[in-house]
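Table 4 source record.
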Amino acid sequence: MIIGITGTDGSGKDTVGNLLLEKLSWPHYSLSDEIRSIARERGLGIAKDELGKLANELREAHGPGYLAERIMERATGDFVVTSIRNPLECEPFRSANKFMLIAVDAPIHIRYARTLDRARTGEASWTLDDFRQQEETVEMAGGEFGQQLRKMLEIADIKIINDGTIAELEDKVDKIVTEVRNA
C-alpha cells in the first residue's frame, strides 16, 4: 500500500508522515524533498517560490507525474509519500499499488505561525497577508502543471484538520493506522 499525504502549507503533512512511519515502520518519501534535491543538483536556490517554480517547470517538461515517478524508481513495498500537490502526481502511485490519499489542513493563522516557527528560506519575512496571497495565487489553483491544493483537498480519501495538540493529531493518525491494518 502507498499512503499519500497532501495539504496546505504548514498544516502538518510531514508530521503526519512521520507519525505514520513511526507506527507502521514504512519508508517516508517527500515530493518537496525531491524538488530540493533537484534544485541542489542544478545549483539553484531552495526558497519556497524558487522550488514552486522549479516543480512547475519539471511537471511541464516531463509530465505532471514526474516527481512521483522519480520516487517510484527507488521505492519498494509499502511507503508513505508527502507533499503531493497536483492530482496527476497521484497516478504513478495509484497504478503501482493500493493508494490512499490523506489531506491535512488547519486554519490559516495556525499554519502561518507554524511556517514562521520552521523558518524555511523565503518564508520568515512573510506577513499573514503575504502567506494568504501566496496560497491563493500559487498553491490553490495553479493550472494543469502547477499546484492544485484545492483540488487535492477535494479528492482526498481522508481529511485531517490539524488544529490541536500533537497528542490530538496522533489520535487521528492512530485511527488511520487501524484502518490500514484492517484493509
